[in-house]
Amino acid sequence: MDKKRKFASGVKMGVDYYPEHWDSELWEQDIQLMKITGIRVVRMGEFAWSRLEPSSGVYEFDWLDQALDLFHKYDIEVVLGTPTNTPPRWLTDLRPDILPVFADGSVYHPGVRGHRCYSSDSLNIYGSRIVERMAEHFGKHPAVTGWQIDNEFGMIDCHCPGCSRGFREWVERKYGTLEAVNREWGTVVWSGEYSDWCQIGPPHGGSPHQNPSYLLDYARYQWDEVVKFQHTQIEIIRKHARGQFITHNFHSYPQRLDQYQIGKELDFAAFDYYPNTSPDKQATGPYSGALSLDVTRGIKRRNFWIMEQLSGPPGCWFPMWRTPYPGFIRAFAWQAIARGADTVVHFRWRSAVAGAEQFWHGLIDHSNIPGRKFEEFAALCAEVNTLSRKLRGTELRHDAAILFSHEQLESLRIQPQVEGMDYYENIKDYHRALTKLGIGCDVIDWNESLDRYKLIVAPSLYLMNEEIAGKLERFATEGGTLILTSRSGVKHMNNQCVMMPLPGLLAKCAGAVVQEYDPIGGDVHEIVDNEGRTFACRQWCDILSPNGADIVMRYGGDFYAGIPAVTVNAFGQGQVYYLGTHPEEAWLMSLFSEVASKLKITMFPGLPEGVQVTVRTGRDRSFLFVLNLCREARKVTLPSAYPSLLYGESRGLELELEPYGVDILEMR
Amino acid sequence: MDKKRKFASGVKMGVDYYPEHWDSELWEQDIQLMKITGIRVVRMGEFAWSRLEPSSGVYEFDWLDQALDLFHKYDIEVVLGTPTNTPPRWLTDLRPDILPVFADGSVYHPGVRGHRCYSSDSLNIYGSRIVERMAEHFGKHPAVTGWQIDNEFGMIDCHCPGCSRGFREWVERKYGTLEAVNREWGTVVWSGEYSDWCQIGPPHGGSPHQNPSYLLDYARYQWDEVVKFQHTQIEIIRKHARGQFITHNFHSYPQRLDQYQIGKELDFAAFDYYPNTSPDKQATGPYSGALSLDVTRGIKRRNFWIMEQLSGPPGCWFPMWRTPYPGFIRAFAWQAIARGADTVVHFRWRSAVAGAEQFWHGLIDHSNIPGRKFEEFAALCAEVNTLSRKLRGTELRHDAAILFSHEQLESLRIQPQVEGMDYYENIKDYHRALTKLGIGCDVIDWNESLDRYKLIVAPSLYLMNEEIAGKLERFATEGGTLILTSRSGVKHMNNQCVMMPLPGLLAKCAGAVVQEYDPIGGDVHEIVDNEGRTFACRQWCDILSPNGADIVMRYGGDFYAGIPAVTVNAFGQGQVYYLGTHPEEAWLMSLFSEVASKLKITMFPGLPEGVQVTVRTGRDRSFLFVLNLCREARKVTLPSAYPSLLYGESRGLELELEPYGVDILEMR
Amino acid sequence: MDKKRKFASGVKMGVDYYPEHWDSELWEQDIQLMKITGIRVVRMGEFAWSRLEPSSGVYEFDWLDQALDLFHKYDIEVVLGTPTNTPPRWLTDLRPDILPVFADGSVYHPGVRGHRCYSSDSLNIYGSRIVERMAEHFGKHPAVTGWQIDNEFGMIDCHCPGCSRGFREWVERKYGTLEAVNREWGTVVWSGEYSDWCQIGPPHGGSPHQNPSYLLDYARYQWDEVVKFQHTQIEIIRKHARGQFITHNFHSYPQRLDQYQIGKELDFAAFDYYPNTSPDKQATGPYSGALSLDVTRGIKRRNFWIMEQLSGPPGCWFPMWRTPYPGFIRAFAWQAIARGADTVVHFRWRSAVAGAEQFWHGLIDHSNIPGRKFEEFAALCAEVNTLSRKLRGTELRHDAAILFSHEQLESLRIQPQVEGMDYYENIKDYHRALTKLGIGCDVIDWNESLDRYKLIVAPSLYLMNEEIAGKLERFATEGGTLILTSRSGVKHMNNQCVMMPLPGLLAKCAGAVVQEYDPIGGDVHEIVDNEGRTFACRQWCDILSPNGADIVMRYGGDFYAGIPAVTVNAFGQGQVYYLGTHPEEAWLMSLFSEVASKLKITMFPGLPEGVQVTVRTGRDRSFLFVLNLCREARKVTLPSAYPSLLYGESRGLELELEPYGVDILEMR
Predict the structure, then answer these.
(1) How many folded domains does chain C comprise?
(2) Within this chain, do residues A491 and A536 fall inside the same structural domain, yes or no?
């Protein structure tokens, strides 16, 4: 297909552009400058409904045709967003049922964005209509290569009458009878038993004390509604725009919606990437960003796009951030590519002069005089375009993966276990320890196949079922190393505790059970290894009773001093670690280092703080990305001397990186 | 009466159990284990309305009969809760006026618990009906010894139409005319005068700037409504279940409702006791707990029950607490008994696997495998059962009392006087100072007779009337020592300031007046005694002018340096202290120590931090409870060597207590 | 006119008094004591609607006549407040459209005060009626010299249907067509284009993400409505009470409404002054207070009244403040006079015994026994009365002014630029630096003429138009020194960014442009002068490119080290500073000191911390006020020895001031 040809045509740079925000006389000079700068992609249209359909059924596509023609003239491809994130005022006036309703009964008023309930019939009717007209009209335009559905989906927790009805039907489809609902939700507690279907609805009032099984299903209903909403648009576009790809721009992880379900129908995933510009975030921000990129790559388990990349200080309804330091824009664009982005679209060409996002700065400031940031961006475009074809078709291949699960995220949000424990923050800790060791890892849905991997890190698989427990057992049996943690196997899939010793269905492969636990929260405890070395741990202490497993660490204090805190169990050809507590980074790094050595997983030990490495591998060559993501210069010692794609000659075993310095080395 | 026999039958242990939460096949094995463990009481039923009356007028009592029969078979007595805390969904569907309405007009939706306005006619109709059926049906069951009304009453500040009407009628009954209302509430301020009864209603909008006289009466209306709501149920139960006692489980002091009015119709009070398990709370938690127990004993001025006692880490919609340290469960159960509990019911037998309270841990974890906590509990049951008959009929007899007043609590909540001043926290300070000296004290309603006491501590009697002022004067005249503090006598009973020098009606007995005051809040000032020793003080500085009283302490700084801060007045046979500021604990302890010596009040000076002592006295013997309520071992020096009920032989003058160690000594 | 004679009759003292709060038998003894104390003015009536019109159309003026007669008997003048701040209950009952509606749709319920939408037709009908009756009846009373309109106007952000309609009409009047609205608000962003007038209304829901142009116009609409509301009352009073002045009591700056528009129709402005009594606020409170007084003087650019001055600890729905230290009441009354107050009315005669303001203490405590505070006040009255005629007609004449703009205040509130930057707090910083140098300055509306001044400090003129830019240019051209700062010239008047290099329309006179900026927020950076001295700076760093201007300071770090941070441009006869960052006080003081020297602006260098000086100048004499506004004694070195109005003889060059000590010196 056409779109595949385009999509496969190498790594490229783009910008977000809003022709409707600017006098049309500015368009061509903007596009000329884009062309000169080396921009090859533009995204537009995702908020333009009021311009495309200024009143019901009246379409004005000329202006966009004119803009598309200009982009085509300069050979810049265009991704069109469907504009359903911002229903125009005539529509919310005509069909107020489009507006979401909050738990307190108040309405999400128009005037901002995202003021649409995904489940609203009216939204689906009018949204489908504008999408269909756009797909018909623009679907064959030679400039248009693809589509973005809506913009930055998010959980709304809508309580509108439509959601009330929709959720009720969803529950009935899932459970069939009220008897089953009452049993699976455990509504007998506090006399919450439903005696009539009409009693089921969204959690009006928003109390966090609601039944957790019910709240989890309410989240699942919403996940399904977003998927359904997207599906309708995808069907329409596929029908009218056959050669074009479809994506969606995810943002700000963790998102409460199920990105894996949403990802299923997309050609590839996209991400809006705003790495934190504050010097205070140097120590954690780039690692958190690395995780975001790995999460995005994991959605489709393939390369992805950045649909919005930071270009200047963000700021709007909140105070502005620091301006990106010299080199920041380049380094973080390369970070995205290094972790699987094939296209990086910067947000935005020029800062808006009107509206709420005036200070979400673009590459060019309001004055329209290109400055330092633009110059850095232009140099970056040149660099990327030079390497574009070399990097074409390369991708990341890892032996390690972290399992991520929206089921856990949501159920642990509903019932926070202990002060200081956060499912996603803990994943960040595991991921950062791996990243600091230069161990590449994927972050994948817990439902995915584990076949490719040698090492699986599976933090807090709090909900569990026999199928996944079986998959994890098979993974270990066949030689994999599996790392489990506290708060695993606690519940069945409908969010009720299991009447089994923890980690429940995983106790067999862990070879250990939890006798008791102490939710220590912010208190700092110690774990001790067999040589007497101590490490700090936090959040939770499972008091373990090995049942075949070996003891790796013991507690160093409290009434369970000397009792196992971490065990490892030989299971089939593999082994299963159980971490009964949340140890400090130094210990995690020593564990991962040991495991990686044993499993012969590639790593780059000794990386200085702030430096990240990844490898993109193609049919016959691999490229090592070495990124210094901090404001200080760094030296990296490499395993051997590789030629640099950016600087030509090999730079030896010792690589000197300037602040935010980048190098890309050809490994073979 | 039968119930009296049961109630007097010695100290005993129980658990909270929810047969409706578990497969009925589990029941008998649970009850067998209870029996083996030494459990003699079970509470149940207080949330079971939807199972007892699954639809309007359809009663299903068989399951509970079956459970009661089983308990009877194993000779375990049962306390039944009336289930009105959780109206079932069919009822809130049928009669939505049951649901409380918040100040902002939003409804307290069903789905959690406590979703019932005490004043709702529908609640009273349907609630009375189920209570009557239960009383008829279960009132003669041989296992049932008593009833708990509803569960954990609390102030709801309901703004429903029923409360609007009810409050209006209450105001009319109290004042008769609008003229009187306007005068007594002082509504002329800000033109708030009522010209029509219909203008009176709950404080819609919830502004804290409302008229304080009005807000206090709105609280009093609610107090009366809870009492009325309870009274209806009590009448029904007394009619059908003559031999059975009636109680209510209070919780989480201070409660804004008037526990003394609620207590009036009960046979005894009960309390839900969750001592804080965090090591950070060691220094204050057990003292705060001691106060809670003394408050509970003061409700009826007699021994009481613990209806829910901590069994494991609580946690639900909030993060879990620490697990109870070894010995914690035992020590705090003994603390409850030491302060007047005759029965201690642990919450709960087994942790719930479903619903919002899954992580409010019971004695047995979800796995249903009894562990450390259960073992400690079982040993405790054995211990209690051994001593049960010895302790029968013993009670606490004290020479000192602290006056507690819901009038002050509420009016000082409505108008916080100064940063850092909290009525109940101040009571904690006075109570802790007494407790650390081993001075037993009662905490009683300020309306009670003071005849039994030598020492009365009366913090901030902010509202005052002539009757109580007269009672306090008589107490002092007849030889008592009365301790008054700043913010006394400020207002009349309708929450208007008096046009008198402070402490208003108490100025005569204080022998001093307040010339001016400085609300110092968090600033730390100094007071100095006649020997030049200085102590810190906080919150408030009354600048005193003695009028017959002697000067005890003077201020050490600010423009009132040298001016009296604390005075003592010889009044009749007794003396009246006036504390114009809130001194640090060291000073309070020196004051109480001096007063106790003078009045020959028993004390145990020199107790180490964390150790509490109390005495339960019977017809011919007294038992000294010595409790180490911390994680470290402690040594206590006793006035003489007593034999130990727990360890037999006398352990000498020096008692060594392990962490959370307990001893009970026979004094004569 | 009569009122002018009264108004010009010298500096005087007053109290706020509420006859309706007290038994009428107390009135005459209160007034006698006022007379003895030296009180010459009383304000009353502003909350008395329910007493003046107890039911619709029924007027009871006798009681107020009686009170006025008594005041007249003792020759005390009376200012009457119109009572529209507190519509009585019969009126809100009859016409509930009077009640404001919040963004969330909830109603501002009666029961407190200020429960009235300025735009409500009903308020205007019933409010005008009571004001007309009062003006007719009391307008000729010999005791009444003037009127206060309503009480402490404030922005309500009302969302009632009346405001919805009113705002819509306002927008239509301003813009004429929806096309113009959409263009000027930039609604195309996020498809927010209006297609029908009925879509325009207040920002329901209250999201801060709304369009900033729209939000600014919504604020302007409210400004106009308050002015209109006031205008109606002023017209009525002017008609019936010709010889009497009209004022309004502003409070708590910054107020979001446009005080300059409100001030236009007043005879003079008044202010409610509550200097903070906490010792922790000694270092900043008196400077913040000085600014409040200068702001008040700037409203009409003439002397003013204090209508409420602190008399004791405030406290009501919030915890009480510290009591005023000895000398505090006197010192801050003199501070008000020193900065242009001609009358100081203390709030209040006696503390209220009823209602929500019971603990907003007056001069006399609830006991009605005058104490220390009253004695200090009485001595102050005597002192003021002694000097009253000498000070008559004197005023403050300054060479420096700070420009204040409600447009900037509101637009910077809508879009906070960076953490730690607050428009009014920054003005405080500039004002405090001037005050510490003893440089008197005015604070005036940015629309005012600048003719009188040599130095204009113009912080963050974020919105700008050609007219004001031209005025500033002329000011500099003609020899003035203009100080501009970062975030100037960013936007046009409808709150859209300009497509020009910053500072936009001010770039020409600044002689420099902003190449880029770094919103550093709370990070502390350095600026360095040509001698290498360094100073701290915060909030924002404009990276400047001089375009004719000289470099004053350069950045000391980050990637813009060495780049200009502050420039000065010779412009015509004058010069224009541009401060690209917010420097610390020491630097501001050195700048102002240098500029003042150059421009020969009077200053008093070397003032100790806590001491403030100002000069009031009359036809032939000037009076130097020297105020020690702290709890420690201070020594001030004066330029020459002046005779003291308070202590007679000259006290030499070195003036010793006790804590809160005051002196007033005759300069020539």
Answers:
(1) 3
(2) yes
Read off the pLDDT of each residue in B417-431 and give the average, rounded to a whole number.
98
**Which residues in chain C touch residue B519, judged by CB atoms under 8 angstroms apart?**
313, 315, 319-323
- Contact pairs from chain B to chain C, CB under 8 Å: 159
- Inform me whether the pLDDT recorded for B76 exceeds 50: yes
Q: Which has more confidence, C6 or B66?
A: B66
In chain B, which residues have their Cβ closer than 8 Å to the Cβ of C368?
A: 499
Residue at C292 is within a domain:
yes
In this complex, the residue of C112, C320, C356 whose CB is nearest that of residue B417 is C320
CATH number where B650 lies: 2.60.40.1180
In a domain, B267, yes or no: yes
Claim to verify: residue C15 and residue C139 sit in the same structural domain: yes
Please check whether residues C97 and C42 belong to one and the same domain.
yes
- Tokens at C207, concatenated: 């999201």
Report the C-alpha gap between A156 and A163 in whole angstroms.
11
Distance from CA of B517 to the nearest CA of C (A): 7
CB–CB contacts below 8 A, A to B: 158
Q: For residue range A566-590, what is the model confidence (pLDDT) as tens digits?
A: 999 999 999 999 999 999 999 999 9
From C151, C132, C150, C143, select the one nearest C31 (Cα to Cα).
C143
Inter-residue contact C515 to C564 (CB < 8 Å): no
Q: Per residue in C631-668, pLDDT tens?
A: 999 999 998 889 999 998 777 889 999 999 999 999 87
What's the half-sphere exposure (Cβ side, CA atoms, 13 Å) at B659?
A: 13
pLDDT at A7: 38
Q: Which pLDDT score, from 0 to 100, does residue A9 have?
A: 74
**Nearest Cα residue in chain A from C422:** A319
**Which residue positions in chain A have pLDDT lower than 70?**
1-8
Of B50, B13, B62, B18, the C-alpha closest to B35 is B13
Residues of C in contact with A353 (CB under 8 A): 186, 496-499
- The last residue of one of the domains, among B391, B416, B432, is B391
Q: Judge: B111–A205 Cβ closer than 8 Å, yes or no.
A: yes
Q: Which amino acid is at C265?
A: E
Tell me, yes or no, whether C434 lies in a domain: yes
Distance from CA of A91 to the nearest CA of C (A): 10
Task: Indicate if C151 and C234 belong to the same structural domain.
Answer: yes
To the query of whether residue B152 is one of the catalytic residues in this protein, the response is: yes
Q: In whole angstroms, what is the distance from residue C40 CA to residue B106 CA? A: 51
Same domain, B643 and B514: no
B164 located within any domain: no
pLDDT score for C651: 74
Chain C residues in contact with A54 (beta carbon < 8 A): 193, 195
Nearest to A89 among C195, C416, C502 (CB): C195
Q: What pLDDT is stored for residue A650 in this prediction?
A: 73
Cβ partners under 8 Å of residue A130, min gap 6: A49, A52, A53, A82, A83, A84
pLDDT band at C317 (very low <50, low <70, confident <90, very high): confident
Distance (Å) from the alpha carbon of A560 to chain B's nearest alpha carbon:
10
For the segment B5-20, what is each residue's pLDDT rounded down to a tens digit? 443 478 999 999 999 9
Candidate from A315, A317, A353 with C-beta closest to C209: A317
Task: Give CA–CA dist C405/C462, Å, rounded.
Answer: 10
User: Residue A575 is part of a domain; what is its CATH number?
Assistant: 3.40.50.880
Choose one of B546, B569, B599: the last residue of a domain.
Answer: B599
Please indicate, yes or no, whether residues B424 and B370 belong to a single structural domain of this protein. no
> Nearest chain A Cα to B328, which residue?
A559
One domain, residues B417 and B330: no
Q: pLDDT tens for residues C320-377? A: 999 999 999 999 999 999 999 999 999 999 999 999 999 999 999 999 999 999 999 9
Structure tokens, C370: 């005058």
What is the domain extent for residue C636?
611-666
Give the minimum alpha-carbon distance from C169 to chain A in angstroms, rounded to a whole number: 19
List the CATH number of the domain containing B102: 3.20.20.80
Strand order in the sheet with B12-16: B245-247, B144-148, B77-81, B41-44, B12-16, B341-347, B304-310, B270-273, B249-251
Find the mean pLDDT for residues C402-410. Answer: 98
Give yes or no: C235 in active site.
Answer: no
Spot the catalytic one: C308, C383, C407, C473.
C308
Which of C213, C289, C219, C210 shows the shortest CA–CA distance to C256? C219
* pLDDT value of position B317: 81
Q: Based on the domain organization, do A496 and A419 belong to the same domain? A: yes
ipTM: 0.96
- Which chain B residue shows the shortest CA-CA distance from A214? B355
